[in-house]
Write a structure and sequence with these properties.
With 453 residues, the chain is of the alpha+beta class. It folds into 2 domains: 217 residues, Enolpyruvate transferase domain (UDP-n-acetylglucosamine1-carboxyvinyl-transferase, Chain, Alpha-beta prism), CATH 3.65.10.10; 208 residues, UDP-n-acetylglucosamine1-carboxyvinyl-transferase, Chain (Alpha-beta prism). It is 31% helix and 23% strand. The strands form 6 sheets. Strands 21-22-1-23 form a 4-stranded mixed beta sheet, covered by helices on one side. The chain has a 4-stranded mixed beta sheet with strand order 2-14-16-15. Strands 4-5-3-13 form a 4-stranded mixed beta sheet, covered by helices on one side. Bound molecules: uridine-diphosphate-N-acetylglucosamine. Uridine-diphosphate-N-acetylglucosamine (UD1) binds next to α3, α7 and α8. Uridine-diphosphate-N-acetylglucosamine binds next to α3, α7 and α8.
Length: 453
């Protein structure tokens, strides 16, 4: 079977501006010592319905974008996650008044005065860097510590910075802090071509441009659903944004933004994870709400493997695992509408028990195959060469003690544990808590046997 060339596009950017790349010290990669263990008893059948929460990646961007408004706003369908709590803490540290009731958050941004984000909070979550665009736009100045990298790669911010510079911002990086300011207090619209369709950079530039003077055009923009959700949210605040979801986004700056009430889109990565839970346990479940167009690449690959998916209604999907043999496939991650890197680890868990050879090529992040070693502890047969994993299907996995290395890797290990014979003990649960809303409760309601101690 042909192995894909070892291509990794974003690394070429890395060579151009070395000073903007931050490699976190090892102590920031392991966020905190965790004693808790998730015990998963394999081979349980799943059945029933699983509710899908609001999208983590949308929620975080929307909360940052709320800073653009001088009135405030209400966001609902927020997932209950550690990362959302961290973003809330960052907003509070900037002077935002917050009222939160379950999935709804009211943000009063009228008294925003502080343009300096605290290192202790920002270093824990990369998405916190997203506040740089709104702060700069709204206050004309922002000081944000370089975000922590994470286990999946160095995760530079050069594209964010270059975009802001193109809009007239002066940016200096001193002692790990990004100091950004704009003379005259207002950014100027510009043409920004992204060397790579970075989600975060597209979002930073789009947010900054909403209050800039004149027209901004982002070329080679990211097309992810979360970018579209952010654009819709900003439009609800009064921004003039056209073309989000395509490769070219045009923003006409306005002098100020107002208030709104907005609902976060469903989390396509959470939905995808439960779709694979049904497949890997050869069960039938329904899940929703989902937006089927957000799941096209995943459903295509799952069909190729042998999973059946139908829409029971416009937003409820039925997923039916196959009782026979699944087929191995080839898959390469790429920006939307390609196969999402955030589903790569979970799909690989399913491929470990799919017949024949599968090839998974990770092209978005440089170091996102760390789950391979853990899956192998559970009996999987996987070899890696650079950013390519070659998986030879085995008949069954067996439960083992394993360590979560990052957010989606931890979901992959839970999925593998659901399918394995015997008990899997998963450690490193802080990763799971960052990004999966009540995962254990949702899985238990489907009939899975798992508990944390
Ligand atoms: C977002 C998502 C993350 C997802 C990723 C790709 C959030 C909070 N997180 O992350 O879950 O996996 O999109 O779909 O929305 N890059 C540069 N320079 C930059 C910015 C990025 O070289 O200035 C590189 C990155 O190192 C990476 C690639 O571009 O290799 C993609 O990153 P990007 O799309 O920016 O991901 P994030 O916005 O960080």
């Amino acid at each position: 079977m042909a192995v894909h060339p070892l291509s990794f596009s974003p690394s070429c950017l890395r060579r151009k501006i070395p000073s903007l790349f931050y490699t976190p010290p090892p102590e920031t990669i392991v966020e905190e010592k965790q004693e808790s263990v998730l015990h998963i008893m394999g081979k349980a059948q799943l059945r029933g319905h699983v509710p899908i929460s609001g999208a983590k990646n949308s929620a975080l961007a929307l909360m940052a974008a709320a800073l653009l408004s001088s009135e405030g706003c209400t966001i609902d369908n927020l997932p209950c996650l550690v990362d959302v709590q961290r973003m809330e803490d960052i907003l509070v540290s900037l002077g935002v008044k917050v009222r939160r009731c379950q999935g709804e958050i009211e943000l009063d941004t009228s008294s925003l005065t502080n343009s300096q984000a605290p290192y202790e909070l920002v270093s824990q979550m990369r998405a916190s860097f997203f506040i740089i665009g709104p702060l700069l736009s709204r206050l004309g100045v922002a000081q944000i510590p370089l975000p922590g990298g994470c286990a999946i790669g160095a995760r530079p911010v050069d594209l964010h910075v270059r975009g802001l510079q193109a809009m007239g911002a002066e940016v200096e990086i001193n002692h790990g802090i990004v100091h950004a300011s704009c003379s005259g207090g207002r950014l100027k619209g510009a043409k920004v071509y992204l060397d790579y369709p970075s989600v975060g950079a597209t979002e930073t530039i789009m947010m900054a441009a909403t209050l800039a003077e004149g027209e901004t055009v982002i070329q080679n923009a990211a097309q992810e659903p979360e970018v579209v959700d952010l654009a819709n949210f900003c439009r609800a605040l009064g921004a003039r944004i056209y073309g989000a979801g395509s490769k070219t986004i045009v923003i006409l700056g306005v002098p100020r933004l107002y208030g709104c009430k907005y609902t976060v889109i469903p989390d396509r990565i959470e939905a995808g994870t439960y779709m694979i839970a049904a497949a890997i346990t050869r069960s039938e479940i329904t899940l929703g709400p989902v937006v089927p167009e957000h799941l096209v690449a995943l459903t295509a690959k799952l069909r190729e493997i042998g999973v059946t998916m139908t829409m029971a209604s416009p937003t409820i999907m039925t997923v039916q695992g196959h009782q026979g043999t699944y087929s191995g496939i080839e898959v390469e991650t790429s920006p939307f509408p390609g196969f999402p890197t955030d589903m790569q680890a979970q799909l690989m868990a399913l491929l470990t028990i799919s017949a024949g050879n599968s090839v998974v090529t990770e092209t978005v992040f440089e170091n996102r195959l760390q789950h391979v070693a853990e899956l192998c502890r559970m009996g999987a047969n996987i070899r890696t060469r650079g950013n390519v994993a070659i998986i030879t299907g085995v008949e069954k996995l067996s439960g083992a003690p394993v360590m979560a290395t990052d957010l989606r890797a931890s979901a992959a290990l839970v999925l593998a544990g659901l399918a394995a014979e015997g008990e899997t003990q998963l450690r490193g649960l802080h990763h799971l808590d960052r990004g999966y809303d009540r995962l254990e409760e949702k899985l238990r309601n489907l009939g899975a046997l798992l508990h944390r101690d």
